[in-house]
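From the shared-data thread, chain only:
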Amino acid sequence: MDKTSSVEQVENIDIEGDGEEIRVTKSKVNVSGTVQLTAGTIVYIPTPTSDPRDPLNMPKWQKTMVLIAISLFSTIGLCIVSGFGGLLAFYIPGYASAGKTYADITSLMTYPTLTMGIGNLIGMPIAIAVGRRIVLLVATAIMLVGAILCAFATNFEWHLGARMLVGFVAGQSEALVPMITQEIFFLHERGTFLMVQQSIQTIATAILVLFASPIAGAITPEWWYGLGACLSGLSLVMAFIFVPETKYFRPRSSFQEDSSTEGLGKESDEHVSKSTHKVVTERPALDFVTYEARTWRSDLRLWIGSPEWRLGMKSLIQTFELLLFPNVLWAMALNGLTLGVNIAIGTTYGTILTSSYHWPEKSASYINCGQIITSLVALPVFGFGSDRLIAWFAKRRNGIHEPEIRLLPLIFPIIIGVFTAVLYGLGATNPASYHWFVYAWAVAAYYFTFVGANIVAITYLLDSYPQRASPLLIIICAFRGIISFGVSYGISPFIDRSGYDGAFGTFGGLTAALGLLGVPVFIWGKKIRERTGKFAVDEE
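Structure, as tokens:
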């Protein structure tokens, strides 16, 4: 164990000058993301405050309602975008008679994925500059309008444009939602509650997508969009009532960083060893004298303070700077690939089931039921399991947490993803030799791969560069959307040229290749953070 990361002593001090003594520990940290996570008990990161309006100090019931409200928003958006795979068969005859090719029609699935990524590039800087709450409310309102426009679409172009509009705001579910989630929980809880939110979202989305075909068959595809519009209205009401602003200023010291860490990678070990921090192991009591109390009126404010447009633009610039970090680039590429393959499966399974296995159009979406099981499996593996894993390793390393430990659970989804992609391609090429369960497995199993890559990437990068949470989420969600669009957009001509086995065999190979690249990231990740950390710290 590196001696510069050891615990020095425990003492009681007055953190905020309010007379409240808090148990703290002096620790030494010399690399961005390497933090003191345990000191006899769990260390709170970021450092807790006595402010009742600090999002970390929200009561449990309110945090629960926030998770439910933002999960409902993301569920509706993702259901309208990705649930369309079960409805393609309803639209193919009409659009084909209008002269549209199968590749044109599948663009109703792929182009909204592209606009999801673009939406993050625009929405997230605004969320940083103005606030998370106002972006969520505006996005939900636009999603309501978009769903109505889809319901009343009279031609392909109108339908495509309306779906791209829904995709534009639904993209906020991929960056804004995890951003809000990680802002109301501490580091040692982050994996668990990000996965809880993902599980709520995934199970609810799977149920709605599961019944997309029968619902559309019973009430028409147009009214399926109408149902989405009604749920969007409910989401807007819930977001307005239950989701307060979570933007809150925290100094570098709250992430166990201080001015002496700015020379990382250049200073000697002797100098770095002098970097010390006080870390809190007990939360202070709320101070209603120094700070204002949290009230319904304060929570209903559309934003807090004046917009910081320079900060929003700075975060966008930092997004492109962070793309130069090898570990960030790898995480984004893996995330984008797995999302793209997941969309490619979602775009093609309906046609295979209805043409090769003679499933009725209204039953095709039943194949998605396995995603519910995926969520129930993913929660203990990537949620509770990840948080328990980092705590266990920290205890064995004198309390020090290294973000690379978050990468260990990725082994399982990578292996499953490679096997599943290849199996799906073989089954689609020779349907007479394979049971329809191949597709039920593929839809659920590769979704497990995507969920694993997503949660692991988010938690690993947020742990590695805590001061760059916003631009990191833009990278993971915006650029992965663009990559996934590239992967899934050419799926139809790719299949025509190479067959299902060739196309999905390639996807399996790429999954394996990017998974293996995670090995050097795990081994040399700390060295990478040591070299790049000095570029991911702001002056205070």
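The longest strand covers residues 7-14.
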